[in-house]
Write a structure and sequence with these properties.
It is built from 14 helices and 18 strands. The protein is an alpha/beta fold. A six-stranded parallel beta sheet has the order 6-9-10-11-12-13. Strand 10, helix 10 and strand 11 form a beta-alpha-beta unit.
Length: 467
């Protein structure tokens, strides 16, 4: 009888791909997958640990699985594995905090999950698994986490997609070289590691051939794609990207644009420091590249950008946005900001509000600063009182909601192309899956197809359209 495995995937799209890779390897090993945790011989919880709320959700989910197992005699022999960012971030602490968990695996172990499960169930000996996995972070035999992740996926990596048939995420790189003082990601996922351009293009070709209509390119920093392979000096805002030096996001987009088929490709998680006029021109000229850019800016005050180590200035960001708007007709920009960062003054915050009013982003969100242990900001002075952080979050959200209403009103009467997500629900070129708004459309339009519709009205963040 084959082993039955359940998986709970938490967190972002990057984590979702890790879950898809694990499922692909489990299926390849002949294991049976189930969406019902109570039916699983082994339950994997793929965790997130980016900010406090995500960390708490992960912890609650793990302990919920442990409690459910304890309450059900039929699940007494079930094994529980904690995977993902929580395991990677707290590799030394978790075995002591969660003694009920049977194994902890990190980011380098997602392709080795099948032999680890076989070991848990007594179907593979310990020495063979340890030889496969390499040294763990602690002496606890349940801990398989390696401290410095090196893994990066390839087009041939077994993967079972968890997204609908019509859209997919493609991870073009792993890790991040930036040292933003609020962010723990480089410590969790390691340094930036790009895939080859050929590997990404071959994966996209296969996805398009299978009927996928939307390709979402993701990584911790998509704009740094290929640059880690360049010889010599790395690009900076004062030393712009030049793809003649090697593969880059621009060369990748142009190759993807050559793929035959009716689809669009979307850019997520770009960093402002690595944009260039070449990339702007590429997006403008490639008809299959969605005129949508996700570019988290975090702040606009020079004081805050310096404290956050964003390697950009307010003037640089303003100039970049103006060049993007001028160079890419019909561009929709998504961004996010952090308010209440240590040392943020009312003057800094007011500058941010004025910036939001001036640039009127088509899609935007704001986070209240989360104090994360292990980051440089954690030990900074000048931490803002939680009531002040909450107040600034509310004031910034009010501005963003007002602008969102104005942007939606401006869409009324326009003819737009949409991708139908589910019966009666679609997304425009400006709407990434799961994070942006939707468009109410005729339920008769087939799911997974493109359609031309006319925007007639709007409700909150969503639009209403008719053929």
């Amino acid at each position: 009888m084959s082993t039955t495995v359940g998986l709970i995937s938490l967190g972002c799209a990057k984590n979702l791909i890790d879950s898809e890779v694990m499922i692909g390897h489990l299926a390849q090993a002949g294991m049976t997958l189930t969406p019902d945790p109570e039916l699983a011989d082994v339950l994997i919880v793929n965790t997130c640990s980016f900010i406090d709320m995500a960390k708490q959700e992960s912890i609650d989910t793990v302990f919920g699985a442990v409690n459910d197992r304890s309450a059900d005699p039929d699940r007494a022999r079930q094994k529980i594995i904690v995977a993902g960012c929580l395991s990677q971030r707290f590799a030394k602490e978790l075995p002591g905090i969660m003694p009920e968990v049977d194994a902890f695996i990190g980011l380098d172990q997602i392709t080795k999950v099948a032999p680890i499960i076989e070991n848990l169930l007594g179907k593979k000996n310990d020495s063979e698994v340890q030889k496969t996995e390499g040294p763990s972070a602690t002496e606890d035999p349940r801990d398989f986490v390696t401290l410095k992740p090196q893994y990066v996926p390839d087009y041939s990596t077994p993967r079972m997609r968890l997204t609908p048939d019509h859209f997919a995420y493609v991870k073009i790189a792993e890790g991040c070289n930036h040292t933003c003082t609020f962010c723990i990601i480089p410590k969790i996922r390691g340094q930036h590691r790009s895939r080859t351009q050929d590997s990404v293009v071959r994966e996209v070709q296969a996805l398009v051939a299978s009927g996928v209509k939307e390709i979402n390119l993701i990584s911790q920093d998509t704009t740094y794609f290929g640059m880690d392979q360049w010889e010599g000096k790395r690009p900076t805002p004062s030393s712009p990207v030049d793809s003649s030096r090697g593969e880059s996001l621009s060369t990748l987009l142009r190759e993807i644009n050559k793929i035959e088929g009716d689809f669009w490709v979307r850019l997520l998680y770009t960093h402002p420091a690595h944009w260039s006029d070449e990339l702007i021109q590429t997006i403008a000229e490639c008809d299959k590249v969605a005129k949508y850019v996700d570019i988290p800016l975090q702040h606009i005050s020079d004081r805050m950008l310096t404290a956050m180590k964003r390697v950009t200035s307010g003037d640089y960001i303003r100039d970049l946005l103006r060049r993007m708007r001028a160079g890419i007709p019909g561009l929709g920009i998504r961004t996010t900001f952090i308010v209440g960062f240590p040392g943020e003054t009312e003057e800094d915050f007011t500058e941010l509000l004025e910036f939001i009013r001036e640039f009127r982003f088509e899609r935007a969100g704001v986070f209240s600063y989360s104090k994360e242990e292990g980051t440089r900001a954690y030990k900074m002075g000048g931490h803002i009182h939680h009531k002040t952080r909450k107040s600034r979050w509310s004031r910034a959200m009010s501005e963003l909601q007002r602008i969102a209403a104005e942007v939606n009103q401006e869409q009324v009467g326009k003819r737009v192309k949409v991708l139908v997500e589910e019966p009666g629900v679609a997304r425009t070129e400006w709407d990434a899956p799961e994070i942006d708004g939707t468009v109410k459309v005729d339920e008769a339009i087939p799911v997974g197809s493109f359609a031309e519709v006319t925007i007639q009205d709007w409700r909150g963040y969503d639009l209403v359209a008719a053929r």
